[in-house]
Fold RING-type E3 ubiquitin transferase.
Amino acid sequence: GSPKVKSKKSGAGYLTKEGVLGYFATVIKLNEKRAQIQVDPLQVGTDGFLMNLTKVLLTLADPFMDVHCSKIDRIDVDYFRKSKRIDVSQETKIKATQQEYDEYCSQPTRNNDAPNFISEIFFLTIAMHHYGPLHCYEKYNNLIKDLSELQRQYERLRADQPNWTGADAVINEEILKRYKLQLDKGTSHKIAYDTQLLDNTALSHSLQFYNLVINWILRIVDPIGKHPAQQIRLPLPKTPPEAFTMLPEYIIEDIAEFFLFISRYVPKVALTSSRDELVIFIITFLNSSTYIKNPYLKAKLVEILFHYTLYGENEGGIGAILLTHPISLNHLMPSLMQFYVEVEQTGAHTQFYDKFNIRYNISQIFKAIWNNHAHKERLKEESLKTESFVRFANLLMNDATYLLDESLTKLSEIHNIQIEMDDRETWDRQTPQHRQEREGLLRSLERQATSYMALGNETVHMLEYMTSEVVDPFLTPEIVDRLAAMLDYNLVSLVGPKCTELKVKNREKYRFQPRELLSQLVSIYLNLGKHKEFVQAVARDGRSYSKNHFSRAAGILLNRGLKSDKDVAELEKFVNEVEEFIKAQAAGEEELGEIPDEFLDPLMYSIMEDPVILPESRVTIDRSTITTHLLSDTTDPFNRKPLTIDQVIPNTELKERIIAYRNKRQNRNS
């Protein structure tokens, strides 16, 4: 055929095309406020209008949305630098400051060609999704939350209706009517949204488009730039490509929010397209932790995996992909462990509570893949990287300690309020205000207990199955004593003298399964009990350890058929070894006599094994004590200045004197 001629910027065809593209860009510009938290609906387009325009753009994008992404190389990575049609200059970037972005825009692009039609439609469709459907998904999520809360308040008010008297009854009846009206109105809104937002055809069309966006982003970060024709290989280089860091963050966030939306409400839509791209995308960015600076964005990627592990293969689930895809088998386990550690500090004021929700999702994914041999092998390989795995194990243990302590404390408080309310005569004599306050406190405690218990159960379960495969990291000096103390303390809570305080009505409501929890704790003892480091750690726990508690636990587990005779015999053997070490320890302490203060660790008050000097405060402390401290807090405990373990200075002179003192005392007593 004849050679193609570059179209001139004139003629009816060009002007029509420019007019249409300009119209889409104007609509996007005029609807930027839709992305704000507070929006005046009279200042922006309607949801229906934006949804319809999104459909038009998707139709224009159809020719380059084929399964093989054959035109992916035509999408211009420099589009935002070349074209002013969509202004992203003030948008948050994936990993660049405003100054870095301004400098990037001032540099020359790879070529001076104007963006082609494919690039124009691609980026306009991304932006139209951002201000149209994605904004609607957010409104839909909020509407469902508000309706759920309104329904709870309405039902609570109705349940209290028999107690209304006098003027209060008139006021409450009016409030009840208003609640009913709001519920009816909200339900009507939800039905209207359902017909539009949950439409399978529309969602499948957007899914097809987002699979292209995913592949395009992976192609940018792929060092050889051939994805998807040649699949991306991990790990990626430490420094992400500049073209990736300069993209608006909302592109990644919209991918996450779109897949979260379909995974929550219409998971089967995922069956209309390949799900491999999504799995590769999520694992790539969890594995390459330096690529996306926003931890909450990565948390959304984890949440998508979590939602999709809940469904079977014919419901859109991705369980089979996680168990068979090479990228998953090689990188999912270490990536999840790395992110588990990373979310300890997110930088937000809510980070303490956020981390538990994120880790709950991680624990569910672990559970879904745990029985796979390849994933277990990766865990064992990761456990050989002692420093990073000990950090992970330490946080796992910290979470179990905190969550169980909080949930059992809340259950004890619920138990007390339930007893108070059961004494009807005394309860009815209380003022209405007092009763209201106690009922409000009970509801709050119930919410907290349920949440903490659900998270605590999963964390203990993770400790149980991980210690069945990997033992050494849990026996390190910085972990083993605290792990033993945590297990002993919770064993006392479940079988000790105060266990009756945990007797609450409808304990299943709070996800409290004391026998199951006891069985899991005992499994951890059995997993680690064959090792002398753990035996000695339990023996050193003077606060909670008691032989009687183990006897009681063994009786309960045998009677309920939760452990076999063999397991109970093993537990008995373990306890006997602990008792023997306690006797030996007592004799050893007697031998050492009155230990000089300078030989004692300043935090633990035990004789030091390997004394080291902290560089700033100049305090001498045992290496294992400061190592344990630094796992949770990277500062010197005596002056709060930053500290790493490689900065400590061995106190060899003091160590030699401690060894000499030990030898002298032992010789004198022998």
Summary: The first helix runs from residue 11 to 30. The radius of gyration is 31 Å. The beta strands are 611-613, 620-622, 649-650. The chain has 26 helices and three strands.
